[in-house]
Structure formats: structure tokens, C-alpha cells
Amino acid sequence: MIEKPILYNYFRSSTSVRVRIALNLKDIDYNYVPLHLRKEEHKKNEYLQINPYGLLPTLKFPSGIILNQSLAILEYLDEVYPTPSILPLNPIEKAKVRSMAYAIALEIHPLNNLHVLNYLKDDFMANEEKIKSWFSRWVHKAFEPFEKVLESDTESGSYCFGDTPTIADICLFSQVVNNTRFGIDLSKYPRINNIYENCLKNNSFIKALPKYQPDAE
Fold first, then answer.
1. How far apart are CA 139 and CA 180, in angstroms?
2. Where does a domain end: 84, 103, 132?
């Protein structure tokens, strides 16, 4: 019996969604191990032995290789399982796709992840309305220029770059999914919405949605 890699993740985590999409696109079967972020299961010693950062997701291979940080996992998967590719081969095109992915992953997520929102709530007494305002601010601050890039880029097609999904689409889709929890109005971003709708026609993206995971609530 062939051993499968293990994905430690949480159904609602946008970084976990990213890795689930990539695994689905690459048709890599894996064992799903849920860790409940709000119950702080990721802080238990058993998991910290696997990932000392105590963050999700973590991908553990039967060989013993353990990877964390979703973008690093995506790039590793693309190098080891190159078909279908989620990064262009051309260096300039690859850099463009990375820059789009980073615009989401580095400009929005670090400011809006759960431990930041909990810090605002617990240490600054931010109520639900203020937390939503905080979340919305950083989404729009990144989405406004992102939309302009998509509008002006002649290489943007059904997806962020061309007509096949890349890590840019994986990051964008995961962020839009996360936005729905906070009721973020995306009506002024037609290209982003169009790409999101195209992703929803792709079974690899659909299967990665939070509502279809075994730990969904």
C-alpha cells in the first residue's frame, strides 16, 4: 500500500485552501488531518513537534520531508510534480505570476489572519464592526491595484495569467473565499470576480472549498 502525504490543516484557513487546491490540481491523494484553530489545537505539543511555528498548513511526506508555509509548499509541488504546471517556465512570466500571488499572500493575509484579529479583539477591545473594517481596509488596499493590473495586462485571460490556473489564482481564490465571511463588497472588481467565477468551474478549486472539508462547521 502506497503511503500518502499528510496535510495538517483547517477547513476555513485560506492558506490551507491554497495547498488543497494545488494538491487537487496535481491529482495528489493525501490524508487530511484537521486542527481546529479556534480551539488552538495547532498549539499543542504534538503538533509543535511537527511544525515549531505552530502554523497551518503543514505537509508531511512519507519520506519524512515536512514543509510549511503555503507558498513554499506550492512551489515545491510544482517542481516535484510539474504537470500541470502552476508557474510559467519563462523567468519573466514566472516573476509576474509570483508578484500577483505575493500581492495577495503578503499584503493581505499577514494583516488579516486569525491571530491578528484575535489580538485586535483581546488587546484593543475591537468589536465585530471594527474588526470587519480592519479586514476590509487591507483587502481593498490590495484589490484596487490588483484589479488595475488585471485590466491592463494583455496576458490575463480566463485566469490571472493566461487560461490555466497558476499560484496567482490559487491565492486570489482563497482570499475571495475568505472575504465572504466578512461580507466584503467586491462589486467594483469585475476582473477579480470573473476569475473567481472561472475558478468555481474548476473541480480542483471546488473540492478545496471550506464547506466540503471533513471538519467543516
1. 12
2. 84
Domain boundary among 33, 56, 84: 84
Judgement on whether residues 106 and 48 belong to the same structural domain of the protein: no
The position carrying cell 499577514 is 110
| pLDDT per position as a tens digit, 49-67 | 999 999 999 999 999 999 9
Give the residue among 25, 34, 27 at the shortest CA–CA distance from 7. Answer: 34
- Distances in Å between the alpha carbon of 121 and those of 124, 131, 134, 191, 213? 6, 8, 11, 33, 28
Beta bridge partners of 66: 60
Query: Is the domain of 141 the same as that of 193?
Result: yes
Task: Render pLDDT for 155-176 as a digit per residue (tens, 0 to 9).
Answer: 889 999 999 999 999 999 999 9
Angle (CA) 158-202-81 rounded to 5° is 95
Please give the residue range of the domain that contains residue 17. 7-84
The torsion angle over the Cα atoms of residues 52, 58, 61 and 63, rounded to 10 degrees, is -20
For the question of whether the overall pTM of this predicted structure is more than 0.85, the answer is: yes
What is the C-alpha separation between 19 and 68, in angstroms, rounded? Answer: 10
User: 140: domain CATH number?
Assistant: 1.20.1050.10
**Pair 15, 47 in one domain:** yes
Q: How many domains does the chain have?
A: 2
Quote the DSSP letter at residue 156: B
